[in-house]
Amino acid sequence: MPRGRYSLHDLHDHTPLGEEHFHCAPGPSGWRYVSQTTSPSGDHLGSVDLALDELGRPIRLELHAASWQVRGAALEGVTWVRTDPTGSHATEGNVRAHTFAGTSPAFLIAMTRLLRLTPASPATRVRVVTFTDPVLAPRTVDQSWALMNSEAHATDNGPLIVDEYQVSALDTGEQHTVHIAGDVVLAAPGIELEHLETPPSPRTHGSDLGEPDTDGPAAD
């Protein structure tokens, strides 16, 4: 069960935004990631609880930030309920998208488990609903993901496969690189792995993404 700490930074000026203390693990029916985020001064900011099924679809998502809350799952695309800090107003949403996204490294791992790309796979287009901090406002965006390279690195626990992904925002054309080993993000824009207590769980590769349907993304 990987357990560790990420540091989070502003994408533009690299100002420290805080830390995310996480643990994650594969299970018999998929994968789960749980984390707590703190400010640079150590104050509690929020939490993430994400569970995926064996195909990488989000079967449960719960986000907390600045007293806002989102609960969601893959249902007729993706469906969610967003609750305001007073708890008196809840807004439902549904989009024919493949999965969720956000600032947490959890969503990058979730995407790789959904896509299961290989270096031979073509760039794959995905539609995601991303929740922006600090009020978890939903926004639908289209991305393209490609696995550019996989390299084995020797460690005391055996070879560690590091995957290099190129992620493109299709609305702006902006591209960035994400480095992932199994179910741990090594480096990504605004994210740095600062501490890891146990090795990553093995990656999952092997099928292409279909269109979103009433059961979520399908594998061809």
TrEMBL record:
Chain spans, region Disordered: 195-220
Protein name: Glycolipid-binding domain-containing protein
Species of the source: Streptomyces parvus
